[in-house]
Amino acid sequence: MDAGKVRHRALEQMHKAIALLMAAVLAGACTPEKRSIGPAPPSTPPTGPDDPRAARIETNVFDVSEGGRHFRWAGCGQCHGRSASGFARLDDPAWRCGGDVSRIYASIANGCGPGMPAFGDRLTSEQIWRLAAYVKSLPKLDPHLRQRGDNALAGEPDGRQWKGPLT
Amino acid sequence: MEGSADVILYKRGLLTLAAGLLSGCAGQQSVLSPASDQARTLSWLGLLMGVICLLIYLLVVVLLGLALRRRARPAISPTGEVSGPVEGWLQRGLTIWASFVAAVLVVLAGASFVTDRILATPRGPAPLDVRVTGQQWWWRIAYRSPITGEWIETANELHLPLDRPARIELTSADVIHSFWVPGLHGKLDMIPGRANVLAVTPRKLGWLRGQCAEFCGLEHALMAFDVKVETPAEFQAWLAHQAAPAQARAGPGLALIENGACGGCHTVRGTRAKGRAGPDLTHLASRRALAAKTLSLSHGGLMGWITQPQALKPGAEMPASGLDPERTKALVAYLEALK
Amino acid sequence: MSAVPILDRAEAEARCLAAWRDAPGLWGFLTTVDHKRIAGRYVCTTMALLFMAGVLALDMRLQLAFPGMHRMGAQGYNEAFTLHGSTMLFLVSVPVMEAMAMWLVPLMLGQRNMAFPRLNAFSYWTYLGGVLMLWVPHALNVTPDLGWFQYPPLSGPGYAPGHRTDVWAQMITFTEVAALSVSVNTAVTILRMRPLGMTLAKMPLFLWAMLVASVMTILALPAVMLVTSMLIADRLVATHFFDPVAGGDVVLFQHLFWFFGHPEVYIIFVPALGFVAQIVETFSRRRVFGYIPVVLSLLTIAVLAFGLWVHHMFAVGLPKLGASFYTAASMAIALPTGLQIYCWIATLWGGRPRLTTPLLWVIGFIATFVIGGLSGVMTASAPLDLQLTDTYFIVAHLHYVLIGGALFPLFGAFCYWFPKATGRLLSERWGKVSFWLVFGGFNLGFFPMHFLGLMGMPRRIYTYGHEMGWQPLNVVALAGSVIAVGGGLIFVANACFSFKRGAPSGPNPWEASTLEWACASPPPPYNFTHSPVVDSLTPLWPPPQVLPVVTGLSLDEREVLVTSVVDAQPVHRQASAKPSIWPLVSALAVSATFVGSIFTPWALVWGTLPVAAALTAWFWPHRRLTPGARRLLGKAT
Amino acid sequence: MNALPDLTPVGDVAELPDAAMGPRGLIWWGTFGFMLIEGAGFVLAGGSLLYLWAQAPQWPPVGAPPPALGFGLAFTVLILLSALPNIWLQKRARACDLPASRLGLVVMGLLGVALMGLRGYELAHLNIRWSANAYGSLIWLMMILHTSHVLTDLIDTLVIAVWSFTHEPGRPQFADISDNAGYWSFVVLTWPPIFLLVYGLPRWS
After folding, report:
1. What is the SS3 assignment for B229?
2. What is the CATH code for A45-161?
3. Probe site for chain D from C260, C572, C633 (most D CB atoms < 10 A)
4. Under CATH, which number does the domain B252-336 receive?
5. Is the pTM of the predicted complex or chain greater than 0.90?
6. Given phi > 0 = left and psi -120 to 50 = alpha, else beta, which region is D79?
7. Predicted ipTM?
């Protein structure tokens, strides 16, 4: 009677599955999902590449997605849309002025070479932080998902234009 | 004894009804204080149904009480079968009850159908075109200009002329919201990809309150707006004033708006502030409230909202300005001048 | 009666016990396929969740009792009502009704187990996966926060970043798989495993109710599984089902969701009607008045329930004509429901009622549910609904229907069958105390909400201003809820105490009429040594000196009797599955697949391998190998 | 009074068979229940497709050619033909004919493999990506739904085939074989409507 063997196989299977389940849940857990509401979002520029706030904000899905909405509201898509090319293109790993959050912040706030003006006065620090986090996420973002996300925001104002709601 | 319990329940019901009516009328967001043809029609329908339902409920409770009261009981065979006159009455009662319920339902459905037809055909002069767009978490309101035919935009405060039908086009810029002013009409959803139209004919002067009635995310609770029903003359004056550009007096405040972060999201017509993401501020000071009725429009309100919006309406898309007190004062001074 | 041959019960019981006993200890716990043990787990889990979700509700009432409370923030409140709604509807109401069916149906049929014992085990483990799917992420602060309905686009890729929504959607997949398994099991058991003589026309009303509810489940739940899968696909692989820009439509979600969502209400409510029928019959000491009208009204409800989902969407702005049609359909369903109410009252009228706790709960059900039914008629009116929907009027309505209409009968059912399940009687005194507290507290707490709705208080708001004048009634609501929860705790305490110290009940303490009362309390693992034969709706009225049974079902192997659908003629003997670990393993494999599919679509691909393997092992028939091959385990399943 | 009644035999079922074929058997009803569930899923998915089709100005939308007909037709013909050996297998299984059942299972297994191959080509020639637009999403939804059923029954058939070659089946196992064949009939029957929705609607609407 090899019920013992059966049992052993079963427990093995079970452990595997449980480990998988916990791993999966943990992967999506804790701070990345936290909605930083209240006075939480940073309100001063990054102190440098190793500003701890950078790591926090670029891993926070809520801040990143808010960055996506600021991206549209500030009209960034008019130069940096999905069809953008060359330096304006943001979904490739090539960065003209550095690709970490603090440098992206700097590029948005102070401009970056010819063609990229400074927006430091037109946006608050909080908005730039989230924009930077979103821009940083673009190269990792599947283009179809980016398209899908843009569609979802299609009814919202795009910079100074607002085509009106979708009807 | 069950009956008595329900009598208590019923009394409590009446008390709460009284309380409800009182405070309901006090509030400007009550189904029980209609201010338009449509809302009045609906409140009559509601009253009719409410009364009928209450009577039916009492009937059921009485029957239940009678069924349970102490009295001689019919003989029951060991197999549980019951025979005798009572059973015969109960059989006939079943038929009567069925036809009674059916009849009541026909009446109610008929009343509902008629009401629907009445609502579908608003009477009165040429309707006023208004477009209300829901956004997280405020209301973009636009009027068709009688002169230029262009849209005149404002936010969070809806003005309607008395006795004139208004054709309110309801749309959404982001997620699903629901436009609900109980004093004017039932709610109607604002759905991305669709335009719904609500026809209302205000019949009572004064202020009403509306609120988003479809869960729309974090600050769904703080998405309300004011409605003012005014005489046609007042309304024309108001609309003309709203159509005019801001009496922009140059100064530190205006500079902040045009060159600072405000202009990135807000428009002040007649200035270089042309952002679209946020509410139009051209005549901000002419309104009663701020941030979709989160705050009253006052000096303190403006100061607080500009310096700490996230503390007052956590998660709202309005960021903290990060301005020092001096510049904040200048900014507020300018905004207060936007009559 | 001396001429009647009497079977040797002791010997038969010993042999059946040997064949049906579970392995001792943990292994037996993990492998059991005993419908009573599994159903017991279901009930305990649901009650624990009922308590947790109830505490959430109290917390929300506290938050709303005063304007501008800071007990919770917006995020906290949104998470609270999402957890409350999702738990109550997906993890409590539907599962507990199915658990009751799982426990009762075989007993009421005089059967030894259900048609597919291992499917029951699989169902529970999958359901447990759904519970963890919702509450473990909550512990890790990945709580769904968009309500129990999660309409796109709010739940779509643009506005719901992260995995909160996916967690909710997959929790549903888990629970629906579990629910569908039980429903198929229940329906087949009722249709094919009735004792000889129990034709459809002699079937107790509870079985009719469960049959109807199971078939409704089978037809309704696929809709919600489909729509949540579409939502996940929109979020994970960039499909466009709910994307108006690319030809999708956000309202499609609502249609599919409510095509499930409305029958869902009746899937919860119809089993409750079954409880009511059995309780009223037993405590009126007479047959239910109007058996045929009740059965017909159950069937009518089932048909109509699929024709009125749109009444949840009147505010969407649909064509007026359509709205009128759904108004008519929605009101029409009040007719069969009203007929049943009449039949219960008539049964009490023409009977000799005994006001025991179970009957009290049923009386409370009538007095409370009718309010919900009538407010339902009001909301069925398309124009009036525009003022009522998404306000506290609806909050009141749905709680009157679900608590008054389903939970009260359920509590009554607990009191009624507690002696059968435990062999002990509940304390009548404390039972009555808990009833009056729950009944009074509930009505005190929820009746005022009708007026809050009329006063313009919308649903799902975490705070309101003082000027709204909503505070007094919200305080009343809080008070009522506290009282009701207190009563609930007394109910539980009474159950726990009586479980240990209650007076022995004997097999049939209520002198009830149906077959489950013809086996020992608590029932042995095999329920019945021999399959009974019935010749009336009330086989135990009058209490038989000798119960007619058929012999020939093996006493030493797990075997059940399969009969024909309509007239319950014997068809064949069916070997009944032995305990097995594979249902659990399969559930784990399925869980891994579901959880993985939140993160990558490929999980569905590689997940099929373990699932297929586990299922193969599950169904692998152990029989003699072809000549030349060595023997494996002896013949089985 | 409140005690267990004695039991008296009024009949005996020892002579009943230990399994019955088709609708007379118990397992068949379980399978049928799951067919109902999946059928409901198909109907609702098809309903969603028609719902969006009715709203669309153009089907398929501009720039998307309809799915290539060739492989679709081939699959349709083959799956319809597969019904014949399937019915034969069901008959033989109900007659407890072991050699024939084994042969039938092998044939159905091979057919299933061939169909999955064809289905691969079909998916490769739908001429639209699910992430392109709602039309594409729905086409893929229908195809994935049906493919998963073909695959399920294929795996089931292969497992049973292996089992039947290594064991000596009894009536219950022959009943399983016949129920598995019944499930395949379901998979066959669900295809034509899906074919019309996926291949027909874009062409003839």
Report:
1. strand
2. 1.10.760.10
3. C572
4. 2.60.40.420
5. yes
6. alpha
7. 0.91
